[in-house]
Amino acid sequence: MERRELLLGAGALAFSTIAASAFGAEHTHDHMHHGNAQNQGLIDATADCVKKGQACLNHCLDLLAQGDKEMAACARTVSQMLATCGALEQLSSLNSKHVAKMAKVVAGVCQECEDECRKHEKKHAECKACADSCAECLKECNKAV
Q1: CA–CA distance from 129 to each of 5, 114, 121 (Å)?
Q2: Which site among 45, 92, 120, 125 is 20 to 30 Å from 63 CA-CA?
Q3: Cβ distance 73 to 116 under 8 Å?
Q4: Distance between terminal CA atoms of the chain?
Q5: Measured between alpha carbons, how far is 10 from 18 in angstroms, rounded to an integer?
Q6: What is the pLDDT of residues 2-47, one digit of tens each?
Q7: What confidence score (pLDDT) does residue 71 get?
Q8: Total-model pTM
Q9: CA distance 116 to 13
Q10: Over the stretch 104-144, which tens digit does the pLDDT of each residue have?
């Protein structure tokens, strides 16, 4: 895969994740007014993961555009985390019967994302913030499982 294809694919994924996250944030906000405290910890943790992950992915894409191929694996794992955390945030806000199953998947994805971001946390604050957020999300996922 050429760098241009990777950047275009990652950019498209980031855009779709941002759009899904925006919908999820509005949806979560609406539910909070209706007293949805059952999954609030999970909703908050996944929302934070998405927020920190978007910043990390944007940073990775900037570095990739400058030729830093070291960040490719980080961009891939963060992209996967964004997709799964966004989905879990929406399922949690809906009190879906699938929350526990999805939380198990997200726990694995967040662990991989945290592990990859930890490799870069001393050089990149965005990676550290993403890794820390994934660690918190992992805790909430394990509670839900």
Answers
A1: 27, 10, 8
A2: 45
A3: yes
A4: 37
A5: 12
A6: 555 555 455 545 444 544 444 444 444 444 434 457 899 999 999 9
A7: 95
A8: 0.76
A9: 19
A10: 999 999 999 999 999 999 999 999 999 999 999 999 999 99
Neighbours of 91 (CB within 10 A): 23
74-53-17 Cα angle (round to 5): 105
Half-sphere exposure in the Cβ direction for 127 (13 Å, CA): 23
Query: Which token pair is 141?
Result: 């996922």
Domain 3-144 CATH assignment equals 1.20.1270.360: yes
Q: Domain residue spans in the chain?
A: 3-144
Look-up of token digits 């992950």: 53
Residue 70 tokens, joined: 């070291």
Q: How far is CA 106 from CA 90, 94, 136, in A?
A: 13, 17, 12
Q: Model confidence at 1, in pLDDT bands (50, 70, 90)?
A: very low
Which residue pairs from 94-98 have beta carbons closer than 8 angstroms and sit at least 24 positions apart in sequence?
Answer: 94/27, 94/31, 95/36, 95/38, 95/39
User: Mind spelling out the 3-state secondary structure of 73-88?
Assistant: HHHHHHHHHHHHHHHH
Q: Where are the alpha helices (DSSP H) in the chain?
A: 3-32, 40-65, 72-93, 99-118, 125-144
C-alpha 6/C-alpha 120 separation (Å) is 20
